[in-house]
Design goal:
The chain has 203 residues and is mainly beta. It has one domain (34-197): 3 Solenoid (UDP N-Acetylglucosamine Acyltransferase, domain 1). The chain has 1 helix and 24 strands. The longest helix has 9 residues, at 2-10. This is Acyltransferase.
């Protein structure tokens, strides 16, 4: 079964030197995977699960890594650029998210034991570049996003570029996170602000 799946996936990989590694313990069903460029890597470790996901890579030397026990469904994972990373930690559940790393050498990392609900947007960029009219300098370059361990992100939330959400925090329903969130706190609103500190939560 795994060998047949690998063959089907490889038919969607354009150009040379791209690599797909799927653990024999993993579970994949109804996913669409398209990779174009060179030296890109897609790694599904341990008993990682992907259901009804779209994975798209355009560029070179990129890595998408799903760690052991991660459970991802109804989500889009997108990389556009070179030397980018999307990493999803161990035992992290994602119920429906758009995860996008665009630009060169940008990283979008999600830690272990996180819980992401549905209709969540996490993007390392603003959507379109903005330039200074006099110098042509790009003003809104992509920036890394870091989400720590055991972070709970409620439905309809958005995490914008350059944000770091530290361990054990909760992001409320419909919030837009534009600044770093300290560990073990609750942040809600537009833009998200911390409303409670020194908390912990359970699945």
């Amino acid at each position: 079964m795994i060998e047949k799946l690998k063959i089907r996936l490889l038919n969607l990989v354009k150009s040379r030197n791209n690599y797909i590694s799927i653990s024999p313990k993993s579970y994949l069903i109804w996913n669409k995977i398209k990779i174009s460029g060179k030296k890109n890597n897609l790694i599904i470790s341990g008993n990682g699960k992907l259901r009804r996901c779209n994975i798209s890579v355009k560029g070179n030397n990129n890595l998408i890594k799903v760690e052991d026990g991660a459970n991802i469904s109804y989500s889009n994972l997108e990389v556009v650029g070179d030397n980018c990373l999307i990493q999803i930690g161990k035992r992290t559940d994602i119920g429906g998210a758009y995860l996008s790393a665009k630009g060169n050498a940008t990283k979008l990392t999600i830690g272990d034991d996180c819980m992401l609900s549905r209709n969540i947007n996490i993007m390392t960029y603003d959507g379109h570049p903005i330039f200074d009219i006099n110098t042509n300098e790009e003003l809104n370059l992509p920036q890394n996003i870091y989400i720590g361990n055991k972070v709970w992100i409620a439905a309809n939330a958005s995490i914008l570029k350059g944000v770091k959400i530290n361990d054990g925090s909760i992001i409320g329903f419909g919030s837009i996170v534009t600044k770093d969130i300290e560990a073990h706190s609750i942040a809600v609103g537009i833009p998200a602000t911390v409303t409670k500190k020194n908390i912990y939560w359970n699945h």
